[in-house]
Amino acid sequence: MADNSEIIPPPHNLDAKWDACLDLTLRRFIYSSLGGAFGGLLFFRSPVTRWASVAFGAGVGIGSAYTECSRLFDGSSTKSAAPKISETPVQDVQDS
């Protein structure tokens, strides 16, 4: 029974959340940087604009990872806020 008291429930396990955020951040940073590099090679001729597209892709990846990690640590499981639903019934308007 002493072993069961040491098990931390999933919503409060910070180690798992940090591992998930680190994994998500690295993946999105690498994939979006590669996407920016591919787009830079495809669309631009100047090395400066190619590096700028890599930097833009990396920024997009880090920004999206930050957003997902903040949602993970806040505990909300949906991607957007749930709309408030009114408890009063809506009356149907009939054409007369």
Automatic annotation (TrEMBL):
<comment type="similarity">
    <text>Belongs to the MICOS complex subunit Mic10 family.</text>
</comment>
<keyword id="KW-1133">Transmembrane helix</keyword>
<keyword id="KW-0472">Membrane</keyword>
<keyword id="KW-0496">Mitochondrion</keyword>
<dbReference type="InterPro" id="IPR007512">
    <property type="entry name" value="Mic10"/>
</dbReference>
<feature type="region of interest" description="Disordered">
    <location>
        <begin position="75"/>
        <end position="96"/>
    </location>
</feature>
<keyword id="KW-0812">Transmembrane</keyword>
<dbReference type="Pfam" id="PF04418">
    <property type="entry name" value="DUF543"/>
</dbReference>
<comment type="function">
    <text>Component of the MICOS complex, a large protein complex of the mitochondrial inner membrane that plays crucial roles in the maintenance of crista junctions, inner membrane architecture, and formation of contact sites to the outer membrane.</text>
</comment>
<dbReference type="GO" id="GO:0061617">
    <property type="term" value="C:MICOS complex"/>
</dbReference>
<protein>
    <submittedName>
        <fullName>Uncharacterized protein</fullName>
    </submittedName>
</protein>
<keyword id="KW-0999">Mitochondrion inner membrane</keyword>
